[in-house]
Amino acid sequence: MPSRASGRTLGWMKDVCIPTTALKIATIALAASLVTSAALAASPTHIDRRGATRIAPVPADLTAGLSMLEVPQQKMAIPGTRKTLGVHVRWVTLPNGLLDLFFDDHPVIQGQSVGAEFVIERGPENALVIEVDYMGVELPATNWREPGDDPSQARFMQFSGLGLISADVTYRRTMWLGSRLGIYAGGGLGLGVLMGSGEATPVLPTCDEPIAACPHWEQVGTQNVALLPVWPVIHLQTGLEVRLIGPASLRLEAGFRDAMYIGGGFSVEI
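Request: output the structure for the sequence above.
Response:
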């Protein structure tokens, strides 16, 4: 150690002398440390945007490949279209309450109808029904009287070959109670052509109650009945459908198709 020592002391170590050269070296080292720390704090941190972390960045060629990879998208399943072809048989009648709106005296009107239908089902609940039908009407020959007419104004009417050939389009919606049993309802519109002919003969002037028992003239004053050739068809229906094993179905139904009806049908998938 040098023989000459500095007069500077540190705290309680006032009896220990520190060389001047050692103090200079310590001062230079402390200043260098402070400068290095300040430089590191001021420099921006490098962010590797190509990778997930700085420790293990993802190569650029791999990220490009991932961006070109197409992920398959799952689309919502659309129910398929089911088509069926069927036939129906119905018993038909016109309610007396409906006939009472147009006639004071009239017979009971009833008949049968048969037809075919083509059904396009969109899913299990919705269906479009195209129906062709022939309705044969049974009208007994008897006296008819319009509202407000006297008994002597009644007319003896008889019809032959009376029937309605028609077609309509109906929307049908089904509520399924199980995998094979459903209740449906629907409605639609169509057009029909009325077939047949009729004749009307006046009753005798002595006609009195009951109107149905009044005699009429024989071939005196007989006139042809003017029948409306084209009729609008209004169709409202409800029913029960049972799907059998395989593509077949059975139906029990009721409704109004220019006349009240009840009947059944059978259809198969095509």
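Helices lie at 20-42, 60-68, 96-99.
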